[in-house]
Write a sequence for this structure.
């Protein structure tokens, strides 16, 4: 199948691209990350995603950065939610909707996401969001990338490829919470 891999970052995607290719799929990465708090960080992670695409010989497409829209449509009223809570659930839906739309407009058979690599992100919530955004033409591929040691593989490959691994999920609320947890 022709599969669009919504890519949250290069390190997470490094466990997904080989698995999808091994499954016989033709993979394109789709870097879509309007949840990230600053343009600078968005660009930094985009560079790392491109490095992975080159290393794994797959195509990569880049979505626009629209954090103002993300704040309005996802975070407003949910700023104090913990990670894995309702803001994250809305965030998954926001990003997967964009991936599903890009996949439908560009002739893909299916889409999936690197978000499921992270132990901080419940796969059940990600799958529910993906299935909500799937359609008759573009299906959501229910790949649980954290299984079969996906996270461990992502850490190992990120080290081998010299990819930058960020210390917070992406939005300003996750950055504030990570800082608070360290104090
Ligand atoms: S913590 Fe991560 S998944 Fe949750 S809302 Fe922020 S960027 Fe999205």
């Amino acid at each position: 199948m022709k599969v669009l891999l919504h890519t949250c970052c290069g390190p997470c995607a490094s466990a997904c691209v080989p698995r999808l290719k091994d499954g016989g799929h033709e993979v394109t990465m789709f870097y879509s990350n309007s949840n990230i708090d600053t343009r600078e960080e968005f660009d930094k992670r985009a560079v790392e995603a491109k490095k992975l695409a080159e290393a794994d010989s797959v195509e990569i497409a880049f979505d626009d950065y629209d954090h103002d829209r993300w704040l309005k449509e996802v975070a407003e009223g949910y700023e104090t939610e913990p990670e894995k809570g309702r803001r994250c659930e809305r965030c998954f839906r926001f990003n997967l909707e964009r991936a599903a739309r890009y996949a439908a407009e560009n002739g893909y058979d299916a889409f999936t996401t690197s978000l499921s690599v992270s132990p901080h992100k419940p796969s059940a919530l990600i799958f529910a969001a993906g299935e909500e955004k799937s359609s008759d033409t573009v299906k959501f591929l229910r790949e649980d990338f954290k299984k079969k040691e996906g996270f461990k593989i992502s850490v190992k490959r990120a080290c081998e490829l010299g990819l930058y691994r960020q210390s917070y999920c992406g939005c300003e609320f996750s950055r504030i919470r990570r800082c608070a947890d360290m104090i």
